[in-house]
Amino acid sequence: MNTLYLSAAEQKEINQAKELLAQGELVAIPTETVYGLAADATNPEAVKKIFAAKGRPADHPLIVHIGQVEQLTDWAVEIPEEAYVLAQAYWPGPLTLLLKKADHVTPVVTGGLETIGIRMPAHQVFATLLQSSGMAVAAPSANPYKKLSPTSAQHVINSLGGKIAAVLDGGDCAHGLESTIVDLTEKPFRILRAGP
Could you give the CA distance from residue 178 to residue 33 in angstroms, rounded to a whole number? Predict the structure, then answer.
């Protein structure tokens, strides 16, 4: 596979990235944390490609990225009021909320678990892509399993070139550290992973 290099400075190339995602392909996209390897979260076959490209075990859940808070109810149920308080304070940004998944959510995304991690990225390129497409994407870091997370498009090309459809270059990532994860499925709520 020839991995396309797309520039986020060109609207037509952002549109091309959206089209590839809609076609079930993988596109590496910049977030404020690290580059994410994105697939349409509603398409199990596309999501399976993430695990294949990364060499990631299938029982490792993926984070779903949304463009608007209203999409929370598309993916999660029994959402506590505190989820909206945290979203108001920290979204868009590097915070993932762990919630109970909606019944229709494919177990491919959740690693077979009954929970789902959801976040709204702050990176302008990713946010615009999500909001303009209405899509939600599963997007772990765009690197081979257990390797260093990529903070530039070139890092992605070096490690996953030939395994994914495209890389959308939006410059270097601000943090270089994965998002904080807060488990809101039972009280007391817990921080599972500390990020930026």
Answer: 5
Distance of alpha carbon 124 from its chain centroid, rounded? 14
The pTM assigned to this predicted structure is 0.95
**Tens of pLDDT along the chain (196 residues)?**
899 999 999 999 999 999 999 999 999 999 999 999 999 999 999 999 999 999 999 999 999 999 999 999 999 999 999 999 999 999 999 999 999 999 999 999 999 999 999 999 999 999 999 999 999 999 999 999 989 889 999 999 999 999 999 999 999 988 888 899 999 999 999 999 999 8
Amino acid at 106: T
For the record, the structure tokens of 157 come out as 């090309």
Phi/psi of residue 72, nearest 5 degrees = -50, -45
Q: Which ranges of 55-114 does DSSP label H, i.e. alpha helix?
A: 72-75, 81-90, 107-110
**Residue 159 to residues 12, 86, 146, 174, Cα–Cα distance (Å):** 26, 34, 12, 20
Asked if 150 and 34 touch (Cβ cutoff 8 Å), the reply is yes
Extract the tokens encoding 139: 């997007």
CB 181 within 8 A of CB 98: yes
Single-letter amino acid, residue 142: A
Residue 42 half-sphere exposure, CB side, CA atoms within 13 Å?
10
Cβ atoms of 66 and 149 closer than 8 Å: no
C-alpha dist (Å) from residue 176 to 46, 55, 87: 26, 21, 21
